[in-house]
Amino acid sequence: MRSPLHQRTLLLGVTGSIAAFKAAALASMLTKEGARVITLLTPSATHFLTPLTFQALTGQRAYTQDDLWGPQGHILHIELARQAEAMLVVPCTAETMAQLAQGHGNTLVSLAALALDRERTPLILAPAMDAGMFTHPAVQDNLERLKQQGAHVLGPVYGRLASGEVAQGRMVEPEEIVNYLRLLFARQGPLQGRHVVVTAGPTREPLDPVRVFTNRSSGKQGYALAEAARDLGARVTLISGPTQLPAPYGVELRGVETAQDMYQALMEVLPETDILLKVAAVADYRPAERSTDKVKKGRTRWTITLEANPDLLQAVQAYRAEYGRPRWVVGFAAESRLDEDLARQKLQAKKLDLLLLNDITRPDAGFSVDTNQGILLDRDGHRQTFPVMSKRRVADLILAWVLYLEQGHRLCHVVPWETWLQARERGTFFTASMAHQGRMALARPDQLFRWVARQYPHPSPENLVVLTLDAREWVGRWSWVWEEGEWWPYLHVQEPIPVSQIKASPYRMGTSPS
């Protein structure tokens, strides 16, 4: 899935601090995320870095104080502020902080920040200064005033400072700023307002204080799903068994050890869960008895009695039948051989909406690797195989499918009204791509705006009509295709479609078809 920062216009204000070198790294990271980064440097910032540095990293012009007095000087800061979807001041010195808090526009950076529409455009500050400066009452007053005015303040953190001291005043790392921005823009995503719960990783069933029964799950697929759901705007809770993975930024992590722990944690959050992605490799059995002391070696045979752990999906099925939540449940079947019949039986028995079947014996799709491959099955009988790809891309595919379910199994196509009126006269709809390629490009309702931008660079919305299909009527005849950073649905047909199977409605930018 595309980064939430893709095609976002960001102003990056750089001020005079030794931490300015981190701003260059940040500019590079944001550009790689697909953002358009326009850099503004204060006079003191140019003592540390040049505009050419940022122009080379971002491919965009970088501005300095001298540009204020150029041909467009009297409106430059206004035009920049109008373009911006967010502005960052990285690093933010005590001087710039004071200017912004008091409403003084002495530099291009402070002028642009003051010209922002704060209702629409967030201002993000990353302070950096020596410890004595940061703790000064005047600086603290300015910091508090900026927070009250709605500024987002990241850091500073404790660490080694340029003076050699170890104290609070060190700028946060660029990676944290990128993660914060991703989270900020993701709030507008198609899963906004939804609570997604992901279970991930293995469980450990203790035999004694040293030994455990466990499995080879690394948690990578589950963590990738948590990050993908976060990037789509969901509130995400990740219930994870023991892994070596860092907690995803902006995700609530609940660590558990045993299958019983995971069961309890899951049942606690079910009442507020909209979408459950049950990825964890939960132990089916646990030792019936646990020794409080380490069992000494010496015996030639050791018989261990096992008892069943709770069946999490069965518990979810019962809860869902009684309370109607979660609305959507996705399960996983990690098998040593691919048996679609058995997988379909599991999907139906557990009343899942979607199930991923994969072969854990493959070196490129099993535990601990960064890639996956397998088959996705849904409750309507639809299936799609997918080749080896990154686990993040698999996560994006699963959530694309969940969004399709969430949006009523609707897939859309947009044409001019004239085309649709001609189709109605014929009684069938047909396109050139259906004739020549045997397929028709579609979009989920939340993708419509981007789909129209791809097909009609300069659209006149009043001249377009949305054609909506119920994909359940086309089981086995459509699939997801990865293009331009996200998964798009395609209908595979060569024959005309009866207009009776199509619902038409006017195209309205920013809204889904009714």
Description of the molecule:
The chain is of the alpha/beta class. Helix content is 31%, strand content 26%. It has 16 helices and 28 strands. The strands form eight sheets. It has an eight-stranded mixed beta sheet with strand order 13-12-9-14-17-18-19-20, sandwiched between helices. A six-stranded parallel beta sheet has the order 3-2-1-4-5-6, sandwiched between helices. Strands 21-24-28 form a three-stranded antiparallel beta sheet. Helix 3 crosses helix 5 (108-114) and helix 4 crosses helix 7. The longest helix has 16 residues, at 391-406.
Topology record:
Blueprint: E1 9-14, H1 20-32, E2 36-41, H2 51-58, E3 62-63, H3 76-83, E4 86-92, H4 94-102, H5 108-114, E5 123-127, H6 131-134, H7 137-148, E6 152-153, E7 157-160, E8 166-170, H8 174-186, E9 195-200, E10 205-206, E11 212-213, H9 220-231, E12 235-240, E13 252-255, H10 259-269, E14 275-278, E15 285-287, E16 306-308, H11 312-323, E17 328-335, H12 340-349, E18 354-359, E19 371-378, E20 383-390, H13 391-406, E21 410-416, H14 417-426, E22 428-429, H15 432-436, E23 440-441, H16 448-455, E24 464-470, E25 478-483, E26 486-491, E27 497-498, E28 503-506
Parallel strand pairs: 1-2, 1-4, 2-3, 4-5, 5-6, 9-12, 9-14, 12-13, 14-17, 17-18
Antiparallel strand pairs: 7-8, 10-11, 15-16, 18-19, 19-20, 21-24, 22-27, 23-26, 24-28, 25-26
Helix pairs in contact: 1-2, 1-8, 3-5, 4-7, 9-13
